[in-house]
Amino acid sequence: MSENSMEWEGHCGHFIVISYLHKPSAPLSSLKWENEILPLSTASVNLINPHSKALLRVRERESGKKRKAESFIRVGNEMATRLPDDFKCPISLEIMSDPVILSSGHTFDRASIQRWLDSGHRTCPITKLPLPEHPCLIPNHALRSLISNYTRITPSKSQPCPQPQTLISALTSPSYPLGTKLDSLTHLARLTKHDSTLRRKLTESGAVPAVLKCVDSDDPSLQERALSLLLNLSLDDDNKVGLVAEGAINRVVKVLRAGSPDCRAIAATIITSLAVVEVNKATIGAYPDAIQALVRLLIAGKAREKKEAATALYAICSFADNRRRAIDCGAVPILIGLLASGLERSIEVLGLLVKCKEGREEMMKVNECVKVLVHVLRNGSLRGVQYGLFTLNCLCNYSESFCIEARNEGVLEICMGLVEEENEKIRRYTSSLVQTLRGNHAIG
C-alpha cells in the first residue's frame, strides 16, 4: 500500500469505515493511522484527498489554539481598560457623568455633591474643610471629556445584549412570557445603572409607561425589578419631573402600602431620588397618602424599610408644607421612638420638623424626648450630634421647662466637650445651645 493509498476497512448500510496513513513528508508530529466513519453519500468526496483532510484537522486544532490565545488576550485587554477609580465619584462610588470641582480642589459628580450640600453640609466630604455658605461648583470639562473618550474605547465586558427597544417591546407586549419580561427588566436595569446617556434614551423612547405597567404587577419579582429600573431612570435630574408627570408617584405609593419588604424599600428610595428636584417635593407631599404611607413604613417596616422611609421623609420635609403633613400623620413620636431604638436617621427628620411650631409642640408631649436627644449627643455620629444640638437648641429656645430639663440631664457638660470639635457646624450649634442654656432665652 502506497503512502497516499486508502484501505477500506468495511462498510455497512449507508456508512463506511475508512483508514489511511499520513504522508511522511507532511508537517505532522508523527506517523499514525486515522480511522473515521463517514456517510456513504460523502465518501467519494472524503476519499479524494485523505492527506488534505488530515492537514485540515491539524489546521482546525491550530485554529482552536489561536482562538483560545485570542480569548486570553481579549480578557487581558478588558482588565487593562477598566475605568480608573479617579473616574468615580468619592460619594456615590459610581462613574461620574457631570464632574464638578469644589473649592477644596476635589471633584465629585454634580448630583451627589448637590445632595450633600442640600442636606446642610458645608464641609468638603473628603478633607472636611469648611466651604462657603453658597459653594460654587465648577464644571470639570477636562475630566468629563476624558471619561467620555475612555468609555468609548473600552471594549465590552459582556455578551451582546438585545437592543433597548427590543427589551422594551418585551415589556409592553402581552404575548411575551413572564420569564422574558423579567430578563428584559434585568438587562435594562444593568444597562442603565451607570449609563446616563442610555437612561435618557430609554425615557425618550417610551420606556416609562412600560416600566410603570410592570410596577403595577402582582408578581413580586417583576415588580421589584421594574422598581430597580425605575430607580435607575430617576437618577438623572432631567428625568425626575418627567417620571412624576408620567404617574410614577401613584405607582410608588401603592407599592409603599402593599408591596413586599424589598419592593417597599426600593419605593421609598425612589421617593428620595425624585425629591431631589424642588418642585417634586411639593408634588409628592400633596399626593394623597404619600407621606402617610412613609410614616406607616416607619411603624411596620423592617430595618431597611424604616431607614429608607426616614430618608425619604427627610428629603421631602425640606419643603415646609410637608413638615406639617408629616406631623399631622403622627411622625414625631414614632421618630423619637425609632431614635431611641438606634435609627439615627430619625434625628435628621426631627431636625427639620422642629423648625415649625407644630413640630416643637409634638416633641414637648413625648416624655423621654430630652433623654433621647441627650443620648444622641453622647453616642451619636458627627451628623447625629449636629442635628441633635440643633433640635435641642430649638426646643430650649421654645420652652423654659425643656431648657431646665436639658440642664438637669447634663447637656451643658456635654457641650463643654464639643466646643473644640473640628466640625464647624457642631461648634456653632454648641455655642448657640450653651448661650441658650445659660441665658434661658425661651420664647414661650
UniProtKB/TrEMBL annotation:
Alphabetical list of InterPro entries matching this protein: ARM-like (IPR011989), ARM-type_fold (IPR016024), ARM_PUB (IPR058678), Armadillo (IPR000225), RING-Ubox_PUB (IPR045210), Ubox_domain (IPR003613), Znf_RING/FYVE/PHD (IPR013083)
Residues of the U-box domain: 82-157
Gene3D superfamilies: Leucine-rich Repeat Variant, Zinc/RING finger domain, C3HC4 (zinc finger)
Catalytic reaction annotation: S-ubiquitinyl-[E2 ubiquitin-conjugating enzyme]-L-cysteine + [acceptor protein]-L-lysine = [E2 ubiquitin-conjugating enzyme]-L-cysteine + N(6)-ubiquitinyl-[acceptor protein]-L-lysine
Pathway(s) of this molecule: Protein modification; protein ubiquitination
Pfam families per the UniProt record, alphabetical: ARM_PUB (PF25598), U-box (PF04564)
PROSITE patterns: ARM_REPEAT, U_BOX
EC number: 2.3.2.27
Swiss-Prot/TrEMBL ARM repeat ranges: 206-248
Keywords carried by this UniProt record: Repeat, Transferase, Ubl conjugation pathway
Keyword Lipid biosynthesis: no
GO molecular function: ubiquitin protein ligase activity
One annotated GO biological process: protein ubiquitination
Broad class of enzyme this protein falls into: transferase
UniProt protein name: RING-type E3 ubiquitin transferase
Organism from which the protein derives: Durio zibethinus (Durian)
